[in-house]
Design a protein that fits this description.
The protein has about 350 residues and is α/β, with parallel strands linked by helices. The chain has one domain: Luciferase-like domain (TIM Barrel). It contains 13 helices and 13 strands.
């Protein structure tokens, strides 16, 4: 299993942070699309690193069209020397229609066609042939030599899809190179629900079992001191509460019998009571969703939960470096990395 880091999306800090993480012996870095465009930070990080894989975790697919995303993926693959992973997700309807003012319908079917359209574009660029993609949601039927990038010595970027529900997970099996698990995903939900849907997607496309790489992005509290534990626990409860209030992720809560918690959290969001939401997350939810303990204990928990199923594991390192306790948190993350190396029995690249 490869051990990667999630870094903040601020492009003014991404390159320096990635360079430091490469020296610290991480295998890759990922940037999410939140308040900054993730592609900008990754382009800058690519210029300052030589070994790290670089990926979006995730970029919002439906905020762009397939041509735009295909071009970004192609360019990042070239800039990075073949180290780029294109992680995409649909997000949820309010973001797409009200924040990005873009169309929304049948997200799983649309995503499958989106990926197919990107591959058709890359096919045309690689072969010099005609671009003639005609789908239900996207049509790409025009290009000429002036708009085709020069040949690349690298393969097209791997496409990873973020998924939670059955249809999008099946879409990852049918069309993607990788599955990006949401941080709310528990080991039980992954093993008992998602893997069956992933296999169904693989089977429907007659693809082999290992065709899709699974990347997990677990929430964790890895602390040596009470101060560090308190900082991490507050943030982790907040993140769980935010995700658990979202109807798109309700299936995870239902799997564990936590539907009442989802309804309570959803009501609190409608009332604007954001600061009350973390109190809904009890210790059972916290320890089922997150890995909790000392760095050595968390490493053993993560190995037990994901060692047999995941190809990559992402550790969040994008904490507020100006907040109280950040130095202890940074030390705990470094200790966790070393403990994971020991637990996974992988000390070389």
């Amino acid at each position: 299993m490869r051990i990667d880091a999630q870094i903040g999306s601020d492009p003014t800090r991404a390159a320096q942070r990635a360079e430091l993480l490469e020296a610290t012996d991480y295998d890759g870095v990922w940037i999410s699309e939140r308040i900054h465009d993730p592609f900008l930070g990754l382009a800058l990080a690519a210029a300052r690193t030589r070994r790290l894989t670089l990926g979006t975790s995730i970029a919002v697919a439906f905020a762009r069209n397939p041509m735009t995303t295909a071009q970004l993926g192609w360019d990042l693959q070239s800039i990075s020397g073949g180290r780029f992973n294109l992680g995409l997700a649909s997000l949820i309807k309010p973001h797409i229609t009200r924040r990005f003012s873009m169309p929304w319908s049948e997200p799983a079917a649309r995503m499958r066609e989106y990926v197919a359209a990107m591959h058709a574009i890359w096919d045309a660029w690689e072969s010099g042939g005609r671009l003639d993609f005609r789908g239900d949601y996207y049509q790409h039927t025009f290009t000429n030599p002036m708009f085709i990038p020069p040949p690349s010595p690298y393969s097209r970027p791997a496409v990873h899809l973020g998924a939670v529900g059955p249809l999008m997970t099946q879409t990852a099996g049918r069309a993607a190179d990788g599955l990006l698990c949401h941080p709310l995903t528990t080991a039980s939900y992954l093993n008992e629900v998602m893997l069956a849907n992933l296999r169904a997607g693989l089977d429907s496309a007659e693809r082999p079992t290992g065709a899709v790489q699974i990347t997990v992005f677990p929430l964790l509290i890895a602390a040596e001191t009470a101060e560090s534990f308190d900082v991490q626990a507050r943030e982790t409860r907040r993140r769980i509460a935010n995700g658990a209030s979202t109807p798109a992720y309700r299936a995870i809560l239902e799997h564990h019998g936590w539907s009442d918690a989802h309804e309570e959290l959803l009501l609190l969001t409608k009332q604007g009571r954001w600061t009350d939401m973390p109190d809904v997350i009890d210790d059972e939810m916290l320890r089922t969703i997150a890995a909790v303990g000392t760095p050595a204990e968390v490493a053993r928990i993560l190995e037990a939960r994901y060692g047999d199923v995941a190809s990559r594991l992402i550790i969040t390192t994008s904490f507020n470096r100006d907040a109280d306790g950040h130095e202890a948190l940074a030390a705990d993350r470094e200790s966790l990395l070393h403990s994971l190396r020991d637990a996974l029995g992988r000390n070389e690249h």
